[in-house]
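Fold this sequence, please.
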Amino acid sequence: MKEYRKKKTKEISFPLGGIGSGCIGLAGNGMLKDWEIYGHPYKNTANAFSHIMVRAEKEGKVVDKRALHGDWTNAAIGGETKNVYRGNGGFGYGMGPYRGTLAGVPHFEDWVFKGEYPFAEIDFTDANFPGQVKLRAFNPFIPLNDKDSSLPAAFFEIEFINNSKEKIDYTAFFTLNNPLPYGTTKNEFHTEDKFSYISYECEGMDEKATIWGNLCLATDHSDISWQEYWYRGQWFDSLGAFWDDVSAGGKLHNRSYQSIAGNAKKPYMLNGEEPGTLAAHCELNPEDRKAVRFIISWYFPNCVNAWNPEKGKKEPTIWKNYYTKLINSSNECARYCIENWKRLYNDTQLFKDALFQTSLPSECMEAVSSNLSILKTATCLRLENGEFYGFEGSGLEEGICEGSCSHVWNYAYALPYLFPKLERSMRELDFKYNQREDGAMSFRLMLPLGRKRFDFRPCVDGQMGGVIKTWREYLLCGDRTWLEQQWNGVKKSIEYAWADTNEDKWDENQDGVMEGRQHHTMDMELFGPSGWLNGFYLAALLSGSKIASELGYKREEKKYLELFKKGKKWTDENLFNGEYYIQQIDLKDKSLLRRYDKILSIDGFTAEDAYWNEEKREIKYQIENGCATDQVIAQWHANLCDLGDIFDKEKVRSALRSIYKYNRVKCARNSFNAGRVYALDDESYVKVCGWPENARRPSVPLTYADEVFCGLEYQAAAHMIQEGMLEEGFDIVKKTRERFDGEKRNPWNEFECGSNYARSMASFSLIPSISGYKVNISRGYIGFDPSSKEVPFTVFFSMETGWGLYTLTESLLSLKLLYGNLQMCEFGLPKGVTPKEAKVSGKEMEYQLKKDRICFFSIVKLDAENELKVTIN
């Protein structure tokens, strides 16, 4: 595991929670922060006094006790706003760190944070504390098992190591505050069959209220004590009394208060200070070690659209979080987690170990694994029936840029490979709720479901990307019935390009070239054809042709394929400038805008008002002769989705070399950036769009041109790796991850328009890109053709039915399922490899060799017990 020490832990917040279930952040120093468990983001929050404390005793006398965290690494003057480590009184800028973080309590002088998502570990040592303490934390992350991976819980294990020569009694005190509205809180201890817990509930509140819910703190340790409540007093009484209780040694004495529901007049706010503590005691002889386990679980079932409320409704529509289908309370969740801990841990560890066996540089695996955490943050929701929904990113208290935004989620390759059912639900919702009758697609899904569509023009990359992704989902699941159900949406999406109702006139003359007004992921529009957006159109046409072929729609198959071929030829001949693909436009031609004058832009202006720069007599926000990092992104998608060539292969490689040459900024301090600042000082990055010295930069260029998006860096790097440019691709990823070093930025929070930004999951494509992984479940085909020629080579793979490892040595190919199963008819081989013999669990399999694949005479069935091994020349 990569280690972070002292100052390098400053920005770390490691998300612990389920997919769409919210999360708690484990800070780099061991504190608990970012309590995003209420159905929305809640950055920089501390749930007052929630913490872990440890104590050591010898012969009945307390030797030492201290909070299980390291030094305070944030500003000593305190939070800049009330949102930073909010608590109940005495917080904010100029008042020092919020005392509810226990920054003012004795703590450990040395700590080392280690993280390989989904596991975090912190080692604590202090000269005054006898022995060592390890804190381990995780939440189940088990590809294909979306239910267990969506549990609203955080798993903690505290291990004591007695490296002294004397017997020591250790205690772990885990305190959880009841954050529910003041005047409603009720803490209650229960114990049942090796399962002990404190429930944190609210009384007297309408169960339909959006802040109604409950929490649970649980352990399966047998030797315990507890306090349902800390001392209720004024000023600093409660923490002082708790410190005295810990200092007294031995077991805690319970403190219980009657419910105060209905006695308080304060408004309902999540601001209470009502902690309760579970203590786990253990006796360790010299050189012994012992781990105690705790669960924090939560249950806030009621969801509402607070970020963009429905208009004209007195009461907002409430829907339930998906986890209400799995559990009925936080107590039930905690019990399930305790009872299934071993299986959940082992399956998660199995995945993590398999993932990290992939033959990629450490920075690449860091990028892949760290961004999986996005799925466990408040950026993502699961709707009532389990459908997946995502914001683009997370703000302080609400999601940013709603609607599973199609042109951003285009980049996110983790979900389709690891939880393909959830990714398919995004396609289903898109076609059901976002598509107009004429085929136009809204690129933001409005909640609650069934609400009026997002009423803005369709975007090319989002709409065409949806077609490409539909083909991808079919390759990974092989469900022909599902594909047939999406066909009408696919057909209408493609044919909207030339529909009479398309006011943006994308491909009005049906020549395979997007020439009209094209909205895109940079939040404005291009006028005229570009390699970037026309590539999406070409890839969608080819995907549509393949889908039509699969379903037997011959007319559409032929039509889309002919359009693709025509458009591909024109693009290669007219949009490649000798080095890279450009946009064809005359920036001085104002008439390009006038045909769209009646159609409002994103800010409500006419096209002329929004795009014409009267001072320079030039159209704004275009690329023209610029070198866009996304110019051949469609080929990246095509390679991953086994579509074939969208552009000329050599021209693609030239374009990638140009991106590396012109868009790579070696030192941010010497580079002008008018936009948002995501790279600083001596940091290196790849900007959105560059202009070589011989290519004039437009007066007002493409939006975000000077910025850096991690997701764009990853797609460009992965594409380079696909095309054999391994050194360049690895270098880009290395420089990206250097920016997220724990001191300046959180390694588990790549941000763009908000934290935990979805586009960064483009990093997962590094795995299929290095391995040349292709799959078509409907035909029983799986194949690999690694870009890396180093052996031995190992890579993680996944699809609808299972996941495992592929290994290539000089003499052997092996395919091992670790989870699930696979029925295979064909096995794709790397270039230059000739098979000699194929066996499954020692049994020889008959086959014939056809070009680049083995075709078995009978279905090969693989699972965790049956591995395919192919000896090769």
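The chain has three domains: 2-346, 359-771, 775-872. The domain at 775-872 is CATH 2.60.420 (Maltose phosphorylase, domain 3).
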